[in-house]
Amino acid sequence: MKAFWIPAIIFLAMIIAVLAGGGCRSKTGGTASKAKAGTIASEGEVWTGWNQYQIPDYTEEGQEIRYGYELIANTSYYLGPKGTVAALTNGMNCQNCHLKGGTVPFGNNFGKVFATYPLYRARNNGIQDIYERVNDCFQRSLNGEKLDTASREMQAIYAYIKWVGDGVPKGKVFAGTSIMKLPFMNRAADPRRGQSVYQVKCVSCHGADGNGAPNPEGTGYLYPPLWGNHSFNDGAGLFRLGSMAGFIKNNMPLGTTYRDPQLTDEEAWDIAAYINSHARPLFDQHEDWKILSKKPLDAPYGPYIDSFSQEQHKYGPYGPIAIAQAAAKSRVETIK
Ligand code: HEC
Ligand code: HEC
């Protein structure tokens, strides 16, 4: 059944793509020959990726890209606790956080990855390539183990990320290719206020205990966990309040897009505080952020370049920290 539908859907998608795009797949001034790549569609300057049906999987290269997509979308099936390839991860999928295969504007997409890596990253105190960045998410966001760089799986993930970002010129930063930064509130984010909104807008899928819900096959989640033993660990990006707030504001409840958010900024900050106030697996982070002046102000663990408490770094208010850090950084610059 499935085997019959997939080619039919691809064929339909191709017809639609040709009709909609007049055969020209690049809306940002690329030439038709560049259009063989699977990407670049932008609305104004906001980047939107191609969808999986545009993967050219009639070629060998395309099949590798397709496998990479599969691993991003159904990570747990292949690499989760009961993974068919190996048991390396916690049961979540990359796509739980990198929505629709990492193609959604402000949905934590992969648009700029191929154009920007290798990249200096302050969290790791050095230059990181795409493999290392992916493994960061394996170890932190999937609370798992590293994937061997030479493995068929890592090579396929690489091929997919390359395909998604192909055609994004080096140095060009499209809007929507990072998690949106929300304006700071004047107060600290409040887990109790967050809880009451959570009960209305999130609990139906993610549960009162934050554990989400498994899929019927037991190979992963229908609704992924937000906290607890099976969720991302405390070294993951979403454990920073600003990242969590920006992600949920533009993407949750499920079906939300950045054009039609259903939470106010305050609600997003408060729910983020509620989610991140719960226990989750621990990750050894003592090698992170060695250069304190480059540590983000919402990093939930010290030491810090300023004298604000860990509590304030975790929940805000961030305005005073931002002012103090700007002053401290300019002192550091002067000493240099
Ligand atoms: C629990 C959520 C979560 C999961 C699951 C997750 N990631 Fe991430 N990932 C993040 C966050 C948060 C960031 C940082 C985004 C930012 O700072 O704008 C990130 C960043 C990345 C980046 C760099 C993006 C950029 O633009 O620099 C890559 C590549 C990446 N993840 C790949 C993966 C892969 C591959 C998987 C699955 C093996 C995965 N991630 C699973 C949350 C997640
Ligand atoms: C209708 C069900 C539904 C509702 C309601 C919903 N979510 Fe989700 N949420 C999902 C699904 C499904 C995913 C994974 C997306 C995917 O894999 O495509 C997800 C992913 C997430 C993630 C990233 C993955 C993780 O487990 O950490 C966060 C954070 C999140 N949701 C928070 C929220 C918050 C906060 C609300 C309420 C404002 C909410 N969700 C409401 C279904 C829902």
From TrEMBL:
This is C-type cytochrome. Pfam families: Cytochrom_C (PF00034), SoxA-TsdA_cyt-c (PF21342). Residues 189-279 form the Cytochrome c domain. It comes from Niabella pedocola. The keyword Ribosomal protein does not apply. The keyword Iron applies. Keywords: Heme, Iron, Metal-binding.
